[in-house]
Amino acid sequence: MEIAIRAYEEKDIPEMIRIWNEVVEEGIAFPQEELLDLETGTQFFASQTYNGVAVDQDTGKITGLYILHPNNVGRCGHICNASYAVSSDRRGLHTGEKLVLDCLVQGRLHGFTVLQFNAVVASNIHARHLYERLGFVPLGVIPGGFRMKDGHYEDICPYYHVL
Q1: Contact 154, 128 (CB under 8 A)
Q2: pLDDT under 50 in the chain at which residues?
Q3: Which residue stretches of the chain are H helix?
Q4: Backbone dihedral region for residue 159 (phi beyond 0: left; psi -120 to 50: alpha; all else: beta)
Q5: CB-based burial of residue 153 (10 Å sphere; 0-12 exposed, 13-18 middle, 19+ buried)?
Q6: Domain 3-117: assigned CATH number
Q7: Are 83 and 102 in contact (CB under 8 A)?
Q8: Where are the domains of the chain?
Q9: Nearest Cα to 142, choosing from 154, 132, 131, 128?
Q10: Which one-letter DSSP state was computed for residue 123?
């Protein structure tokens, strides 16, 4: 299976929404609680600085995505933020790594100088190991910063990577 990362196209939106909503419904990684529909999803993805999609070259199927956007405004507008989502049936196949590597390139191309993650859930060890392996720097721990779907609170770990 060959995975390529490219900019999203309008035809990708329904599958992007499906994958995004899957992660939101799991309730263990994204802060969002509201699911996207075609209208809100189209608006949401259009509002990002860049959206990358992972495409299985054999089938043409979208297997993952990321969103890239400013983390803040004005004097902090050079710092970007991103979120990654991989379809549950494609996790563990290094799709996430390809998405993050492409995001680092796109962040630079879009004029950002730092990529910051505000809220990586501490128990999301696969993501944390990936980020650290790719040179992201952990900034510490925010105790109880994320409310899990079942209602208990987990620590979050902010990270950054100089672009």
Answers
A1: no
A2: none
A3: 13-26, 38-46, 95-109, 125-133
A4: beta
A5: exposed
A6: 3.40.630.30
A7: no
A8: 3-117
A9: 154
A10: T
Alpha-carbon dihedral sign for residues 48, 105, 97, 1: positive
Question: In the prediction, which pLDDT does 92 show?
Answer: 81
d(CA 89, CA 135): 27
- What pLDDT, on the 0 to 100 scale, is given for residue 42? 98
- Per the structure block, which two tokens stand in for 78? 């050079």
Residue 14 has a CB neighbour count (10 Å cut-off) of: 12
Phi, psi torsion values for 124, nearest 5 degrees: -85, 65
Stretch (H or E) spanning 118: strand 114-121
CA 69 distance to own-chain centroid? 11
Q: Tell me, what DSSP letter sits at residue 44?
A: H
Q: Measure the CA–CA gap between 60 and 142, rounded to whole angstroms.
A: 40
Against a cut of 0.85, is the pTM above it? yes
Return the amino acid letter for 1: M
- Closest C-alpha among 123, 124, 156, 125 to residue 139: 156
pLDDT tens figures, 36-50: 999 999 999 999 999
Say what the pLDDT of residue 93 is: 85
- By residue count, the chain amounts to 163
Nearest to 120 by CA among 80, 82, 162, 68: 82
